Predict the structure.
Amino acid sequence: MCGICGFVKFNQNVSQEDESIVHGMNNKLRHRGPDAQEVLLYENIAFGFSRLSIIGLENGMQPMSNEDNSLILICNGEIFNYLELKEELKKSGHSFKTDTDVEVILHLYEDYGPDFLNKLNGQFAFALYDKKRKRLFCVRDQMGIIPFFYTFTQNTFIFGSEIKSILEHPLVVREVDMVGLDQVLTFSGLISPRTMFKNIHSLENGHFLIVDEYGNIKKQEYWDLIYPEGENVPDEKPEKYYIEKLEELLDKSIGLRLRADVPSGLYLSGGLDSSMITMKVKQLQPDVCKEVFSIDFPDSNLSESVYQNIVATASNAKLNKKTFFSEDISERLRHSVYHSECPIKETYNTASLSLSESVRAKDIKVILSGEGADELFAGYVGYRFDKMRALNMVANTANAEEEKLRERLWGDKTFFYERNYGEFNEVKKRLYSKHINSSFDEIDCLNHPLVNLDRLKNRNVLNKRAYIDYKLRLVDHLISDHGDRMAMANSIEVRYPFLDINLVEFSTQVPAELKLKDLNEKYILKKIAEKFVPKQVVDREKFGFIAPGSPYLIKRNIEFINDTLSSDSIRKQGYFNHTEIEQLKNKYGQKDFAINIPFESDLLITVITFGLFLEEYF
């Protein structure tokens, strides 16, 4: 993966001053591409590219052009099925200048225009300038693994892989987006197209933009996670068919994601998903001793060391284990906020940052990781609670107002997602300052669109939750601020075999009862895993790691935490109620106080990291 940035001016051509600007934007992305940097200016466009060399090491530099130089491309990411696409394109007469994967984009665009995107199996965000049509074509991949941010101001379209690059452009005004902050407090994190910066947008997964020569911007969806309507009951195909087909697709996905001209490694948590990938890699590359990377904790209640050791031994992998002490959180918190470009709800981003540091120290650039399986195969506790409610094992209590809110949010007054949001709005109102509360209805994220209700209508409750988890938890949080940003802070590309486009689309056809059988989550994955993953891992209870939160930081009496939460700081910032913050600080600081994550929110970690966010960006 790399970093891309640039801008298009619609009232004049670019100048020497613009060259300095795009260089400045590009420099902010050096951590994404430390191997080489380049800029290109043409008429009214300026492109910047920072390269992390992974495929086509000798001749894969960008910006890149097609045969007649009518197209200019900068791409962040990988096209995993590029060898197959390249063969097809050669047969139709195309010639290639490089050995890199992304060159196929140029030739596919020549043949199909914007309609080629679902031929790509990969993780990518790119900007392609079409000189003949005088238009810019910007794309984010189907899963949203690779970020793409943009803004339009004063006749100029500005974009970048990270917002910090966009902020380098002198036309961009920095202003907090309060709806974005409210999203972070309310859900797992930000939800595209919202960011923490007003008028700077995140391109949604499976979407593209076309910016024409007059500055008109057309946004269009080209892919989404679409589940079949109805109860998704088993069809005439037997269980064995789904197990064998899913395993076949997982094998292919891992094989594609091992394509690289540099060494690759694996993240190994000790859970089912990362263990499946690690053991599968051993099957596919039996003679290779892979480097695997794990985080361990001195607290035995958090440590998964036993399972990490079992899988590393069984796969003949070299285990690189890093013990993460609680004080490492405070040391990395500011750095993680800088790279996340937003406040965070939990501190495990700091553990992810530490893990990517370990990978970088081994001079490895590519990592395979297990994210996506929980959302696609019913791995969270919420799926079990849905089934228990259906069986009247737990109550589904909601007053009339809450039912009305659920109907508006999810199109279903009986569907419970994470919490009762009407009640939580009262918590937020106590947290916000008087000034913010004066416009609460405007900044309340529940009053702004969250998901496409048509994709939830008439769906099985398991698939309904899966779609919402995918949109609200996975895309812009787990593989974004937690995944991409924490890895690329140390120039590491993370690849996700469970998010292969073919595997994901097949997952929508797997009957719900093969994902959650009785109350056994990820049933179909366990059936596959029991053939090659150590039994101790397959049979273990799901373990959700929860990093120490703000109560730990407050009790340690850390100076910058005290300063961030001080009444003077809170008053000066103007976003939160200093009296409420002081009361929460006293409560969280009590010796035996603990937060029951994930059923309760760590409100002060968001307040703390929002304060750090303001210091970093404002």
